[in-house]
Design a protein that fits this description.
Shape of chain B: globular
Number of helices of chain B: 3
Structural class of chain A: mainly alpha
CATH class of chain B: Alpha Beta
Strand order of the largest sheet of chain B: 1-2-8-7-6-5-4-3
Number of domains of chain B: 1
CATH topology of the largest domain in chain A: Arc Repressor Mutant, subunit A
Helix content of chain A: 55-70%
Radius of gyration of chain B: 17 Å
Distance between the termini of chain A: 61 Å
Strand content of chain A: 5-15%
Largest sheet of chain A: 3 strands, antiparallel
Oligomer: heterodimer
Structural class of chain B: alpha+beta
CATH superfamily of the largest domain in chain A: Winged helix-like DNA-binding domain superfamily/Winged helix DNA-binding domain
């Protein structure tokens, strides 16, 4: 599954958000998401499975609990994509800044020529 | 000069949109001119290394725009669309097509909104695709295009070395 497809689902995005500050037990995040989205426990389990299998999260058992944590590699893929997109636009906009400086200069000159009243 | 305050922000507010936010150190009517007059658009549109040899803008609802972007290796790409909404100085909305098969089947809607911030201008550009697949597909198309260009440049440099 492509990173964007995984992130396309609001429940999965929320689950990742809940893990942003560190590892948490599956039971805890499942309960939160169930309450917020009004979805069943098996449905949340299914989302957790997608996150696990796509490599977005890692799991380790501690006693009877399963602790979920974020794995940053797939998130990096999205970041890279956005970074490149941002860079392309930043380059365009930097050129636009130059055009605007030129236009401001032209306008000032025009005003100057017309005198103070516009 | 004002570099730090003019950071570009790119976010994905929904599954089908990309949002660009940026401030410009110029009054709104000048930003509008720079974005809608071919002689100015030619000077800035596209990432570094790309030029815009042709830029046609028929700025009226139903009017078309056609930009030809040229990469350093000479390859050219047509971008085009039609104006849907024009509120001078404030808001511009148009269809957006990257006219290279198979991507030209995907029609996006781009909306630019300009807000006056006391002599400065806040610009908000929303790109809306019919589906998430198309949005992501577009991004990858652009990325592949750029990557291919770099590959070709590398090949060329290798032959010159």
């Amino acid at each position: 599954m492509h990173a964007f497809d995984v992130l396309g689902d609001p429940v999965r995005r929320r689950l990742l958000e809940l893990l942003a500050d560190g590892e948490r037990p599956a039971g805890e995040i499942t309960a939160i998401v169930q309450a917020e989205f009004g979805v069943s426990q098996p449905a949340v389990s299914q989302h957790l499975r997608v996150l696990r299998e796509s490599g977005f999260t890692s799991v380790r058992p501690v006693g009877a609990r399963r602790l979920y944590a974020i794995d940053s590699a797939p998130l990096q893929e999205v970041d890279d994509w956005l970074d490149r997109f941002r860079r392309n636009w930043e380059e365009s906009y930097e050129k636009l800044d130059d055009v605007l400086e030129e236009l401001k200069g032209k306008e000032l000159k025009k005003k100057g020529r017309k005198g103070n009243g516009r | 000069m004002a570099a730090k305050t003019n950071q570009l922000k790119v976010t994905l507010p929904t599954d089908t949109t990309i949002l660009l936010e940026r401030e410009f150190d110029a009054p709104r009517h000048l930003v509008w001119d720079a974005m809608t007059k071919p002689e100015y658009v030619k000077q800035w549109w596209g990432p570094r290394g790309y030029t815009l040899p042709s830029c046609e803008i028929d700025l009226r609802v139903g009017g078309e725009w056609r930009y030809v972007s040229r990469a350093q290796d000479g390859s050219e790409y047509l971008f085009r669309g039609m104006y849907r909404e024009i509120t001078p100085v404030e808001r511009l909305s148009y269809t957006w097509i990257f006219d290279v098969a198979p991507f030209n089947e995907n029609v996006a809607i781009e909306t630019v909104e300009l807000e006056d911030r006391g002599g400065r201008t806040y610009a908000r550009t929303t790109m809306l695709w019919p589906s998430k697949e198309m949005r992501d597909g577009h991004a990858e198309a652009m990325q592949d295009g750029a990557a291919q260009t770099m590959d070709r440049l590398e090949e060329l440099l290798a032959t010159l070395a």
